[in-house]
Amino acid sequence: MIDTRPAEIENRGSAGHWEGDLINGASATGNLVTLVERNTRNTLIERTSTKEADKILDFKSKFMLFLEFFKIGTILIDSVF
């Protein structure tokens, strides 16, 4: 939960802590699935035309493959996942 994460993560004091989200486009123009590293602001973005949970989880799994190249401490995913 966001409200219970340690101060080190909250104040962006160290790298390796990621946040995921789904950004909805206007008027059915599509959506963006994002993962952002809180300290370095490294960002992974994928466009999708759906908000269906199973499709979004497919993108999340795809992101996990990329994350092996980055430092990982925590990953906080918005409740939409």
Report, as a whole number of angstroms, the end-to-end distance. 14 Å
What general form does the structure show? globular
Strand order of the largest sheet: 3-2-1-4
What is the gyration radius calculated from CA atoms? 13 Å
Instruction: Summarize the biggest pleated sheet.
Output: 4 strands, mixed
The helix content is: 10-25%
Q: H/E order of the elements?
A: HEEEHE
Strand residue percentage: 25-35%
Q: Give the averaged pLDDT, no decimals.
A: 77
The overall strand count is 4
- Unreliable segments of 5+ consecutive residues: none
Question: What would you call the structural class?
Answer: alpha+beta
Q: Output the number of helix runs.
A: 2
Please give a structural write-up:
By secondary structure, the protein is an alpha+beta fold. Helix content is 23%, strand content 31%. The chain contains 2 helices and 4 strands, in the order αβββαβ. It has helices spanning 7-10, 53-67; strands at residues 17-24, 31-37, 43-48, 74-77. Strands 3-2-1-4 form a 4-stranded mixed β-sheet, with helices on one face. It is globular and about 40 Å long. The mean pLDDT is 77.
Topology:
Elements: H1 7-10, E1 17-24, E2 31-37, E3 43-48, H2 53-67, E4 74-77
Parallel strand pairs: 1-4
Antiparallel strand pairs: 1-2, 2-3
List keywords for this structure.
4 strands, 23% helix, alpha+beta
How would you sum up this structure in a few lines?
With 81 residues, this protein is of the alpha+beta class. The chain has helices spanning 7-10, 53-67, and strands at residues 17-24, 31-37, 43-48, 74-77. Helix content is 23%, strand content 31%.
